[in-house]
Amino acid sequence: MNALNTQAQQALRRLLAQFGLSLEAGDMPCSNWIDGDLVTGQGDAITLTNPATGEELTTYRDAGTDLLDRAVAAATRAQVEWMALTASERGRRMNAAVRRLEGHEEDLAQLESVVAGKPIRDCRGEVGKVREMFEYYAGWCDKQHGEVIPVPTSHLNYVRHVPFGVVGQITPWNAPMFTCAWQLAPAIAAGNGVVLKPSELTPFSSVVIARLIESGGLPQGLINIVNGLGPTTGAALTGHDGIRKLVFVGSPDSGRLIAEAGARRLVPSVLELGGKSANIVFDDARIDDAVAGAQAAIFAAAGQSCVAGSRLLIQRDIFDAVVERVSRAASQIAVGLPADEATRMGPLQNARQFERVTNMIERAKAAGARVVTGGTRPTGLPGGANGYYLAPTVIADVDASMEIACEEVFGPVVVALPFEDEAEAIRLANSTRFGLAGAVWTQDPARAHRVAAQLRAGTVWINSYKAINVMSPFGGFRDSGFGRSSGLDGLREYTIPQSVWVETGAEASVAMGYGSGQV
Ligand code: NAD
């Protein structure tokens, strides 16, 4: 066994013990938070691999359907208790609850770094986001005051925003803590109970967050985390009768299954899916900024980011110069161990993803694309030859119809495509089935807004990339999904408008059919 792997196993054991997730008997760790209890799964064993070494990290059990039933029952009961509180009390409790993270931030970041293989500095940032999301949505608890509609009859008509009851949430492995808090916070602020299933590849951090936060003053059972595979625990969650809304963050293929499962029970869904975002650089852009932006857009999180700027569209007269500069900068990125403070890019998270990305690069080469830099496993890494590392990769000489240019890679791989003019840039940007994000680099403000308005993408940056905040709505067009997260739009996904009509006339006017003397 690689010494680094032994170190990672020891670190994980310490962190799980610290958070109370390991059993004294030495059995598999607790991987579920149900009705205020840490619970070991009852299903098959799931093995986690260390992304930095490719060796086994630990094993835990799939939750299984009995535990899921318990989780839904607990959330159903606790939701009633939660809604019996005043709105301002719910806000106060959410604010108090998130303070329970204090003093645990570093351990939480380390836990995520070991299991997800993400650089420790990125994980610290993610913990900060968890706090920000709960604080933001705590503020909404007592501000969901509905509306009065000026109907043309003698009625007082008002609209209430009513919680669904219990919502089911499913999250991916690339940003487990971020996506957990991103969906938990608005769901409970809107008055729902929750059962959330994280990715089977990153099970623990959501359990820790839920435990800390719920124990900080929320009703026992309001937040439940069940861990297991998509086809087992995930499918059981999407098909459960007690779940009234589904919110899914993940790939388009799984998103379709989730929406189908919801549709069969007439349960609505929000889908936050993948992307193939276009980062458009015009020849009047500040090139230093555009190059730095292109780097951050694709190589942060080793490209395992839904909004990754994986298509770099560059105006033809500056194409060679920009490709050369982005490639040079890419080759200088500090790729290394997740735990190392100096690391800017860690490994890919899992073997399947590593194979997927490297196979896509090989198919691109076979189709005639040119790898300008990267494309292979970097040599001389401390994790040895079996970690899922891939050097930052820039690919040119691609045709927009090639797989590498139109399908999501979800790795540190950017394709560079030249364009002649604004019209071609817009056409290329909108030419994939996705529509999650995009960026425009130019010093011409009129052009910036003109192009942004024509991009079919849920988020557009002008002379920037990857700025996101819980205050601003986020989501996709087309195969990048539907519904919104963050901001008021994200909160509204967790409520149903209820319209209430009160007769205020001196004489009641109950009409047969639609007609009424007053309409
Ligand atoms: P994935 O679709 O493989 O898995 C996501 C989750 O779905 C996991 O928890 C998995 O267990 C579960 N799942 C899989 N099949 C299921 C089924 N039949 N029923 C119920 N649950 C099931 O995605 P991934 O590989 O974990 O994540 C990467 C993808 O997520 C990328 O496409 C990325 O772009 C996307 N993503 C999108 C956003 C966004 O906000 N738009 C954010 C992060 C990641």
UniProtKB/TrEMBL annotation:
Domain of life: Bacteria
Catalytic site positions: 272
GO MF annotation: an example: oxidoreductase activity, acting on the aldehyde or oxo group of donors, NAD or NADP as acceptor
A Pfam family: Aldedh
Keyword line: Oxidoreductase
SUPFAM superfamilies, per the entry: ALDH-like (SSF53720)
Residues covered by the Aldehyde dehydrogenase domain: 41-499
Family according to the record: Belongs to the aldehyde dehydrogenase family.
Name of the featured protein: Aldehyde dehydrogenase
Native organism taxonomy: Bacteria, Pseudomonadati, Pseudomonadota, Gammaproteobacteria, Oceanospirillales
